Amino acid sequence: MKALQGFKAVELVVPTGKSTMTVTDSVIRFNKATAVELGYPTYVRVLVNEKEQQIAVQACTAKDANAIKFSKGDGKQAGSVSIKTPAVLEAVTKFFTLSNPSDDEIDQRVINGVNMPDSKAIVFNVADAETSVTKRRGRRKVSE
To answer: What average pLDDT is seen over the chain?
Structure first.
């Protein structure tokens, strides 16, 4: 079929949204779309490329080196996924200068990812990070 040479089939699976990673000084959060695009992996590896200033999250198994818990199964993952592992936090936050403006606010960086389905990974470019500030949640300090 030389008439169709160079064509490829249209993928029928439509992504549910853009993969997003949010970085603060105490947590790295991935939105639910990240879990969906990776296929709801139970474990992932977080990879950093210091030269290219990139961070990647790659699906893996529990037996792989540096595997950390990530997602629940399809239909069970209700919201975002948070990673608080100290070694991962240190490796990722060194790309950013984070400073909380006040006791009520949290400095954060938000990055949209690029899906790499052949590698079962999503890559986040540090240069694409957007700065934002959010209000702190949880119990408030009692004012004196």
So the answer is: 86
Distance of CA 119 to the CA centre of its chain: 15
111 forms beta bridges with 21
Round to whole Å and give the CA distance between 22 and 65.
24
Under DSSP, is residue 2 helix (H, G, I), strand (E, B) or coil? helix
pLDDT of residue 144 exceeding 50, the answer is no
124: CB partners within 8 A, 6+ apart: 21, 54, 55, 56, 57, 111, 112, 113, 114
**Residue that has been written with the tokens 């992504």 in this structure:** 15
The residue ranges of every structural domain in the chain are 17-135
Render pLDDT for 47-67 as a digit per residue (tens, 0 to 9). 999 999 999 999 999 999 999
| Contact predicate 86/25, CB 8 Å | no
Question: What are the backbone dihedrals phi and psi of residue 81, each rounded to the nearest 5 degrees, phi first?
Answer: -115, 130
